[in-house]
Amino acid sequence: MSQPAQPAQPAQTTQTAQPAATPSTAPPVAPVLSHPVSYPVLQHYLARLSGAGGATSSIWLDADGKAQGRFFNCTMGSAFQPIRQLDAAAGPALAYEGLARGVAVADQGLSLWKLLDHAASDDESIELDRLCRMLHAINFFRQLQAPAAGQEPADLYLNVHDRLLSAVSSNHGHAFQRILAALGLPIERIVLQLPQVTPQQGWLLQYVADNYRRNGFRFAVNASGPVEALDLLARLRPDVLKLDARLLGQADQPGLLRLAQTCHAQGIRLVFKRLEASTALALLRWLAVAAGVPVLAQGYLLDAPDALLLSGRERAAA
């Protein structure tokens, strides 16, 4: 198998670090937003990206200004699924989870991570992970709108594949931290989502979480239920805790109440992912009222992943 193309790496200068890119005679221009958040270094990088369909770079812009990347023979882009507060479901998203999506018709529906589980080496896994993170960061921040007065900007949640926990030997998050700095992007708006692990891997999860925190990242952990979630809160002190909404029917209600109130008291966001059924939505609405705390959720019942953030979807529908 041939060596995959490497993601464009930032080039350091004595003034402002900027990512290296191959110039193009007529690069596509990122869409102009009505009230965008300004990231000058990123805009300069986008202007320099090649428009030659990725012939000379592993990242390029398509005709609509979206960043795309190539890993082996798969061309991928970004999709974003909103994370919302249930009692404000019609309002702006508090965050988005970045997801890799195949761009070509033949690639659509392809699970890149499942492919790596069976075929790729650790080095290739690391390369794909960094390429996806860079793609999602570019596509998220290039279209992020300035928030309304009194609101925080939306966060970007990025997944960490379980294979990466052991594939990277040390200093987890350092390479991505350097990319964000070179692109002039705010690390404080990034949340890295750690996978569920076996009890025997608990020490590894602790080690990786400490690495990310030292490198300036917030992180999220996934739990199977309230008991495991409370244990993770005590051991790891995450910034975000995620539970699968499809398993709500199996969780005891007193445990859910305690978990929601504990997270709220400690300033930890509790997010229920994969919200797909109306019965789960009813349980979450009950939880928000019974616990007296905000409940966050994401899933196809609320929003499907899309290349555009919510503001862009609204403009496209107008």
Q: What can be said about this structure in brief?
A:
This protein has ten helices and twelve strands.
Separation of the first and last Cα atoms: 46 Å
What's the arrangement of strands in the largest beta sheet? Answer: 5-6-7-8-9-10-11-12
How much strand content do the residues show? 15-25%
Number of helices: 10
What's the rounded overall pLDDT mean?
82
Low-confidence stretches: 1-34
What is the H level of CATH, i.e. the homologous superfamily?
EAL domain
Strand/helix succession:
EEHEEEEHHEHHEHEHEHEHEH
Structural class: alpha/beta
Helical residues, percent: 25-40%
Radius of gyration computed on alpha carbons: 20 Å
The shape is: globular
Overall domain count? 1
Description of the structure:
By secondary structure, the chain is an alpha/beta fold. It is built from ten helices and twelve strands. It is globular and about 55 Å long. Helices cover 36% and strands 19% of the residues. Mean pLDDT is 82; it is low at 1-34. The strands form two sheets. The chain has an eight-stranded mixed barrel with strand order 5-6-7-8-9-10-11-12, surrounded by four helices. The protein has a two-stranded antiparallel sheet with strand order 1-2. It has helices spanning 40-48, 112-119, 122-141, 162-167, 174-183, 202-214, 226-236, 253-266, 278-291, 310-317; strands spanning 10-11, 18-19, 59-61, 67-71, 74-85, 95-102, 155-159, 190-193, 218-223, 240-244, 269-273, 296-297. It starts with 9 loop residues before the first strand and ends with a helix. α3 runs parallel beside α5. It has one domain (10-317): EAL domain (TIM Barrel, Alpha-Beta Barrel), CATH 3.20.20.450. β8 (190-193), α6 and β9 form a beta-alpha-beta unit.
